[in-house]
Give the backbone structure.
Amino acid sequence: MLSRAAMVAGVVLVLWLSELLPLYATTMVLWVGCVLLLSPLDAGNFALPRVLSTAASPVMALFFGGFALSVAGSKYGIDGFIAGWMVRLSGGTRAGLLLTIMVGTAVLSMWMSNIAAGAMMVATLRPLFGRAEDQSAESDGGAFRRALLLGVAFAADFGGIGTPIGTGPNLIAIGAVEDRLRITFLQWMLFGVPTAALMIGVTFGLLVWLHGVRGRVRAAHDMEPRSLDRKGWLVVAIFCCAVAGWLTEPLHRVPAALVALAIAASLFGTRLLDTSDLAKLEWDTLLLVAGGLTLGHLFDASGLAVATASAVDWHALHPTIFLFALLLACAFISAIASNTAASAMLIQIALGIAPSPSTAVLVALGASMGVPFVISTPPNSMVYGKGGLSSRDFFVPGIGLMVLGCAVLTLAGPTVLRWVGIP
């Protein structure tokens, strides 16, 4: 059993890390491999219905509802409305604009995909970028443009830490420990939002220092806040109901996944979203998250996680050093490959060594720290494509943020998580 499980897991991880196949296609390879190779040995855990049941996990329903809200926000201009107000609130200073844009991008990234949040903010700032592009890359305007682009990318990367639906690794962690502890939306945010805020604050300070952000800027007319129509405000009301339902889960006891399904049903049932919008949902990401959950089931049910963990005497390491090494490994793998794949693999190995829910949460957050390369995240690649940035512009602040983020999670994470009820 262990040899077959290791073979399936190894093939899947190579495909995920090398991207020889599309990431979502690798999930299908994983399903086929589990059923063909493992169900003859353990039909209870690896029969086709059991393997496919991971795709019907409450975690998947939660992500589906979040994607539906994201599509509705883009369709009715809510993302542009928020971005426009962020620009207006900047106070006319370059540092103020950078900070408000980063905060706005991060807030959007908590509720929609990081690439959507970043792309929308870049589109809002395009008039400003156009003026800066006319100046030398070494000029004051060119440096400010680089700071803004990097600020959008890093804020989109770190913003997903704040909520369970912000990024795939978060839901992988919740799914990995749901049989031991049900982590509520509010519990996650009590830890995730301050962590995201800390990382964004440090990033802002670094960018101001590295790029000499100072002086004033005049926002262009087409950067003013856009108006919303009646349907746009209706989507805002539904969004507010969703957030209220998620945050008050400890009071009404309705699972966050059920709230997400109800929100999706209301969006499609009221025809705010239609069949064409259904096709815009990020089905590839949903399949990738399903693959991460399936890989976790493979590691757990086959005993591979325990066997991998017991192959080394981890207890010889100090617990703090072990946790830091684990988070740094997850961040580095995420920096060069899929963060969902990295977290799916390392969360299960970590739980085999330190079987506490907080370990899974910290490893998932470690995946979001992998930001030092152009290829590390879609927002990084997107802003790099706008021109004027070099690999060094990402690496210099990114490597420091990666190490600092992992260190903060290692030193403060376990204590704070215990305080919010995640042991």
Q: What stands out?
A: The chain is about 75% helix and 0% strand. Residues 131-138 have pLDDT under 50 and may be disordered. The radius of gyration is 21 Å. The longest helix spans residues 391-419.
